[in-house]
Structure formats: structure tokens, C-alpha cells
Amino acid sequence: MTESDCLFCKIVAGEIPADIVFENDDVIAFRDVNPQAPTHVLIVPRRHIPTINDLEESDARTVGNLYLAAKEVAADEGFAASGYRVVMNCNAAAGQTVFHIHLHLLGGRILGWPPG
Ligand code: 5GP
Ligand code: ZN
């Protein structure tokens, strides 16, 4: 499913350029345009899923593939052992602004806890 007005569907389709760092047949990962850490990569399913609340049992493999991609990118970026953060925002109170689910992979600096 592709949503014609969805920013990340357009990146998946190649209609908007992005700095892609990983891709397979299910997910792609690209650098965030407004990075919050030395490495800030967004990992998204190729298929349009608006929020975590829209996930179905049949999406379980895709969600797993998002994390497997995060592992690969963290290794490529050189901070797999030292540490990094993977987070997904859901809806307004968490600050979700693009309604196509995405993992944020943040690394390359000490990350405070709890997040804001
Ligand atoms: P959210 O706030 O929905 O969790 O995260 C959306 C993320 O998408 C933000 O970190 C924002 O900087 C990023 N973003 C917004 N527009 C673009 C874009 O056109 N290209 C890229 N690469 N990232 C974007
Ligand atoms: Zn989409």
C-alpha cells in the first residue's frame, strides 16, 4: 500500500531523495534530515503503516526486520558495542509527525535517560 500524500512512501518510491544507508525487500533506512545525534537514521517498512496502533499480527515479521536493520546500521556506524538507542514514537503526545511508522536509530554520543 502506498499513500500518495505520505512523505516516507515517497522516499520508498524514490520520488523524494534520501541518504539511504540500508535496504532490503521489506525495509529501508535513511539519514534523518534533522539529526539529533551524530548518527540519526530512520528505519521504515516499505509498506505504509501509519502508527504502532495500526499494527496487525501479520506485520510481526516486518517489525522484526526493522530491528534487524537497526542492528546492521549500528554495526556499520561503529557503535554497536558502545551503545545506541532505538525508539518509535506513536501519535501526538510522543511527538510523531510522520504517520508512516519508523524506528529512530540514534548513536554517536551519550544519550540521556529518560528522554524528554
Ligand atoms: P517523528 O517525529 O514522526 O517520530 O519523526 C519524523 C522524523 O522525520 C523527524 O526526525 C524528522 O526530522 C524526519 N524528517 C522529516 N522530513 C524528512 C525528510 O524529508 N527527509 C528525511 N530524511 N527526514 C525527514
Ligand atoms: Zn507511507
What can you see in these coordinates?
- There is one protein chain.
- The longest helix is centred in the middle third of the chain and has 18 residues, at 60-77.
- A five-stranded antiparallel β-sheet has the order 1-2-3-5-4, covered by helices on one side.
- A hairpin with a 3-residue loop joins strand 1 and strand 2 (27-31).
- The mean pLDDT is 97.
- Helices cover 21% and strands 22% of the residues.
- It has 116 residues and is α+β, with helices and mostly antiparallel strands.
- It starts with 6 loop residues before the first helix and ends in a 9-residue tail after the last strand.
- It has helices at residues 7-12, 60-77; strands spanning 20-23, 27-31, 39-45, 84-87, 103-107.
- Bound molecules: guanosine-5'-monophosphate and zinc ion (ZN).
- Mean of all residue-level pLDDT scores: 97
Helix content: 10-25%
How do the helices and strands follow one another from N- to C-terminus? HEEEHEE
Low-confidence stretches: none
Give the N-to-C terminal Cα separation: 33 Å
* Tally of alpha and pi helices: 2
Structural class: alpha+beta
Shape: globular
- Count of distinct strands: 5
**What's the story with the biggest beta sheet?**
5 strands, antiparallel
| Assembly of the depicted chains | single chain
Task: Tell me the strand percentage band.
Answer: 15-25%
Please list the strands of the largest sheet in the order they lie side by side: 1-2-3-5-4
Structural Rg:
14 Å
Question: Which ligands does the model contain, each kind named once?
Answer: guanosine-5'-monophosphate, zinc ion
